[in-house]
Design brief:
Protein name: Fibronectin type-III domain-containing protein
Function: Acts as a defensive agent. Recognizes blood group fucosylated oligosaccharides including A, B, H and Lewis B-type antigens. Does not recognize Lewis A antigen and has low affinity for monovalent haptens.
Shape: flat
Structural class: mainly beta
Radius of gyration: 50 Å
Family: Belongs to the fucolectin family.
Oligomer: single chain
Number of strands: 42
Number of helices: 3
InterPro entries: BG_Antigen-Binding_Lectin (IPR051941), FA58C (IPR000421), FN3_dom (IPR003961), FN3_sf (IPR036116), FTP1 (IPR006585), Galactose-bd-like_sf (IPR008979), Ig-like_fold (IPR013783)
Pfam family, one: F5_F8_type_C_2
CATH architecture of the largest domain: Sandwich
CATH superfamily of the largest domain: Galactose-binding domain-like
């Protein structure tokens, strides 16, 4: 760790004289002892500066030559030095006199400067104190990137007396320019860098006052990507202390937000400046996919062929493939997806794995280990199974075999990647069988998937289709469908969906003809035939209906027409209504029937009501006729 001294100079130079120049005040200058360049002069309070511990410190009196014969410098640690020539100066270095100054932060060293006359009598005395603040550097090696926190957006848990959060990123480190929170629980300060950066250095400058440097004790520097003041959303990178400058270097952390959070309970945060050095985060180069279908074939006494399917990559290309042979050997086999491994020993089992390497040098994950055994013709056997068979391995005769990438169970001559002769059984708590075509997703295309909500034969099975599945949006789906061919079948398509209910489709045997909907049964039990316009009807039919009998229940039959107080419209009223509306009262118009249809029960009731009214008109007319007949006699 490189330690840089930081000290605040408070000078009290009050000369208490034993000579005639009583209470005369002189000034002093601090010098860099290696360069002889002044660091500070006068009686200034609250001024700080840097001094590397490799440099020496000089305290020089500006008293003119000849006034005194000697100047005696006494440190509070007991070191005394007397200078007899102008300029009167006391020098310190790291190896001796002033070593205590670098031990702890906020260490105060008192000076007593005495002026002696010729006989050696003390004539004047100056007293002053230098307070040292130590800085710390962690990691070594500063950043080559700019300060990306400068003038960025900031916030803090609270603000006291106008000391706002932005004062820690304004680039000003002198004067009373620092942040200040109100004394409270777990105070925090945060800067938003605007986007994510790869950060390699963070520098925190404390408030350079002996009263307040300890306020950073217990605070932690965090880096994260969430707009949050919760430390659990961040990565902790450094625990702060009371040093004046804490320079955290050689970091390897990424984030958009840098937060200083005091996690030790009640307190105040004072920060003079925060620097964050880094570069904009860039996405890492893509990683190739792991090669698939890795298998061995054609073993000989000294070689084995290895085969695999090519890797893919989102951008760039595959540069080459690498083969691991056992744990100790890796070979580059170029950009081919097959190779022959030579110089092997007879009858030995080897372990192989393959990985892809991109044109940007990024490797894929390796495949699972593959074990393969060379043949041993000297012992009359071949591979693990013996004989001159070309199979890489067999067990129990021909029960299990593997040849040219094909696995046979119950056969030594498999025709497909997996060829099973005999019964199959899949067993387990969540045992499944999933078969799908190349390029198909998990919810469409031809396959069989058992122990899920999906059973679906492929398009190559032209005789029938059975589909039961749960869609990606949670919608259930059931279909029984025939797509082509002759013979009896249950509809062309029978389908159930959560949103529709049951639907029945038909089409001819030509698969290019689209199926047409014939009937639907909704979740409410409503049935539609030839139409989807079910509405609230229990049965909707777009077409003719033939039946021997239809019975309609109606509890409002119009016998009320024959009640004595029934208000029978006059014929003049009927005549006027017809003239105005073009139809009988209470009877739907032609337009209404065209748009809405008619209800058979209601219409029969209306017609009967009109017949009964007509009967009453006839009876009245009969009475009038009889009266006329009487008058004519």
């Amino acid at each position: 760790m490189k330690t840089v001294l930081k000290f605040l100079f408070t000078l009290i130079a009050v000369l208490i004289g034993h000579s005639i120049q009583a209470q005369t005040t002189y000034s002093y200058t601090l010098y860099d002892g290696d360069t002889d360049q002044p660091l500070l002069s006068g009686f200034n309070n609250n001024i700080s500066w840097d001094l590397d511990i490799s440099n020496r410190l000089s305290v020089v009196s500006d008293i003119a030559s000849g006034i005194y014969t000697q100047v005696k410098f006494t440190l509070s640690n007991g070191h005394t030095q007397t200078e007899g020539a102008h300029p009167y100066a006391c020098y310190g270095d790291t190896s001796g006199n002033f070593t205590p100054w670098t031990q702890t932060a906020e260490e105060a060293v008192s000076f007593t400067v005495q002026y002696l006359n010729g006989p050696g009598n003390i004539t004047e005395t100056d007293n002053f104190t230098i307070t040292f603040f130590r800085s710390s550097t962690s990691g070594g090696g500063g950043s080559s990137f700019p300060n990306v926190a400068l003038n960025k957006s900031t916030s803090q848990s609270s603000t006291w007396n106008g000391y706002t959060s932005d004062q820690a990123v304004d680039g000003i480190t002198t004067g009373n320019n620092w942040t200040h929170t109100i004394n409270g629980a777990n105070p925090w300060w945060r800067v938003d860098l605007g986007q994510a950066y790869d950060i390699d250095q963070i520098k925190v400058i404390n408030r350079p006052s002996s009263c307040c440097v300890g306020r950073l004790n217990g605070a932690v520097v965090y880096v994260g990507n969430q707009d949050s003041s919760d430390p659990s959303d961040y990565t902790a990178v450094y625990n702060l202390n009371g040093d004046l400058v804490q320079d955290i270097q050689n970091l390897s952390v990424s984030g958009r937000y840098v937060m200083i959070h005091k996690t030790t309970g009640q307190g105040i945060l004072n920060i003079t400046e925060v620097e964050v050095h880094g570069q904009v985060t860039t996405a890492p180069p893509p990683k190739p996919s792991t090669p698939t279908t890795f298998y061995a074939s054609n073993p000989t006494d000294t070689s084995i062929d290895l085969n695999w399917n090519a890797s893919t990559i989102t951008s760039g290309s595959i540069s080459h493939y690498e083969i691991d042979i056992d744990p100790s050997t890796t070979i580059n086999v170029g950009n081919s997806t097959n190779t022959t491994i030579n110089s092997l020993s007879p009858g030995v089992t080897y372990t192989f794995a393959v990985r892809a390497v991109s044109d940007q040098g990024v490797s894929s994950d390796p495949t699972d280990d593959l074990s393969a055994t060379t043949t041993d013709s000297s012992s009359g056997g071949g591979g693990s199974g013996g004989g001159s068979s070309t199979s890489l391995w067999t067990q129990s005769g021909n029960d299990v075999s593997f040849s040219s990438g094909k696995v046979g169970i119950g056969t030594s001559t498999p025709d497909e990647n997996l060829h099973v002769v005999g019964n199959q059984r899949i067993q387990g708590d969540n045992a499944s069988l999933f078969i799908k075509g190349t390029g198909e997703d998990d919810y469409n295309g031809g396959r069989i998937f058992l122990n899920t909500e999906y059973i679906n034969s492929g398009n190559n099975f032209a005789s029938a289709k059975i589909s039961m599945h749960r869609g990606t949006n949670g919608t259930g789906h059931f279909e029984i469908q025939r797509t082509a061919g002759n013979g009896a079948y249950m509809g062309n398509l029978l389908r159930y969906k959560d949103a529709e209910g049951w639907r029945f489709f038909t089409a001819n045997s030509n698969t290019s003809t689209s199926s047409s909907l014939q009937m639907q049964i909704s979740h409410q039990g409503n049935v539609s035939i030839g139409t989807l316009l079910v509405g609230d009807w229990k049965l909707a039919v777009d077409g003719k209906i033939r039946a021997r009998e239809i019975r309609v229940d109606n509890d409002a039959w119009p016998d009320f027409v024959f009640v004595s107080d029934y208000d029978l419209p006059t014929l003049d009223e009927i005549r006027n209504f017809i003239k105005k509306y073009g139809h009988l009262p209470a009877v739907p118009s032609a337009k209404e029937v065209e748009e809405e249809g008619v209800e058979l029960g209601e219409m029969n009731k209306i017609l009967l009501q009109k017949i009964e009214e007509l009967t009453l008109y006839i009876l009245e007319l009969d009475e009038q006729v009889k009266e006329l007949e009487k008058g004519s006699k």
